[in-house]
Amino acid sequence: MDFISIKNNQCIRFGEIPVLPYADFYSLIDNKLTTAPDAHCVAYYGVPMDGKIRLICCLADDATHLIDVASAVVEPTAVLESLTPKHLDLQLFEREIHENFGVGFSGHPWLKPVRYPHNATDRSLKMQDYPFYQIDSEELHEVGVGPIHAGIIEPGHFRFICNGEQILHLEIQLGYQHRGVETLFLQKNNLLQRATLAENIAGDTVIGHSTAFANLWESLCGFEPSRQLQIERAFALENERIAIHTGDLSGICTDIAYQLGNSVFGRLRTPVINYFQRWEGNRFAKGLIRPGKTNFHFTKELAQQWIEMISAYQPDFVEMANQTFDLPSVLSRIERTGIVEPETARKIGMVGMAARASNVSRDVRSSHPWGYYNEIQYQPVTEPVGDVYCRARIRHDEILKSIDLMKQMIDTMDYTAQPSAPLANAAADSFVVSLVEGWRGEICHCAITDAQGNLLHYKIKDPSFHNWLGLALAVRNNEISDFPICNKSFDLSYSGHDL
Q: Is 404 within the bounds of a domain?
């Protein structure tokens, strides 16, 4: 048997997913990732069923625009051959399965806890006992940062091994924000409660995660959103991208003590994020995306207000960006700092903006488009080197591209009120994968329903899940004083990872 190949947001019968012996499952995944350079794992997780664990693996092939899905049933006490030695991008997926269900993976080089969930198999594991990698040397020293940080940074622990100021190794321990979000999706039967959960997975990615949930749920219900609703969601997604990218440029300037850039980019972020408040009453867009409908139809007046806002924003943004990327004191801090080589980025499975900054052209809007993105042939922006400069520069380029794209959306919108129809019940015994390109990168939501159409399992993956290892590798051989700027250039989510 082979994979079953599906499209993004395609609802299929759960029973259609092939169930293979683990040896065949292993070989199938290994062969796909070895022979298809444009394939990568978007989800690999376990589902408890009848006292056993159903392993489900979803590999997105950017060349075919399909998602290949296969599964295997194993015992919780099984010790399986690890795929990680051959495919490093699977290391965290296997660690999560081990932590959640106790399944062993022989040959895995780093079978450590991922997030210390409340339902972990081994309840004796404690945050304070995390097995950090250590080097025994009189010349080296360790530096611990966190889990409590200054300001509003979320909790996470960073353990550096240094030779003087030079970082030799960084290990990142997360899990402090674990809220059991995936379990809550099963416990909350009300659709509004689930939509609210989705928009609170990561506070800086309200549109990204709530859109993934809306697309998934509508697929389960057999609902086809109107073209106008699809455009409005894409418009909101791109506006969120512009706002967060602008704020990140401000943060990057902060970490290199460039006060003018910090102030101007910070000021420019405000009207973009505040535009959501004009649109629907919440500046972070909570309440805007709802399955099957919108409570805040996009009007001609809102379109004109956005044009006025962006017309004031764009010239100031371009002027500030040109000055920032032309200033020797800025370039000396961000060029050749925190490099993730393209081959490394591909090998560890990086996604989104950080991957594209390392010349890995991975973007759901292009490879697995949904809604309005099906109408256009989106061409991702890439940068060649993978340093802080490239991760800053790609934000600049994507902001300008999003502005052009949103102007096109405004020109093609239908501003007449769109009638909404009630959603049907979710399909029984079904499976859906929903991919959305959030500002940070690839968001993945997976759902399985039971014989009554109730949620049996819900799986969430924020792009941070792929990219934290990229940050750890980026700082190697840099000075420890470069860590803040490297960290900000990735701007990963603690809560999105920990769930």
A: yes
* CATH number reported for the structural domain that contains residue 115 in this entry: 3.30.460.80
Q: What is the CATH number of the domain that holds 488?
A: 1.10.645.10
The whole-model pTM stands at 0.96
What is the signed CA dihedral for 120, 433, 61, 228, rounded to 10 degrees? -140
C-alpha to C-alpha distances, 114 to 95, 99, 100, 174, nearest whole angstrom: 7, 7, 9, 7
CB 372 within 8 A of CB 399: no
| pLDDT digit string, tens, across residues 120-148 | 888 888 888 889 988 888 899 999 988 88
**Measured CA angle at 295 (ends 290, 301), to 5 deg:** 125
pLDDT in tens, 60-82: 999 999 999 999 999 999 999 99
Give domain status of residue 208, yes or no. yes
165, burial (CB in 10 Å: exposed 0-12, middle 13-18, buried 19+): exposed
Q: Does 270 lie in the same domain as 191?
A: yes
The 3-state DSSP composition of the chain as helix, strand, coil percent (nearest 5) reads: 45, 20, 40
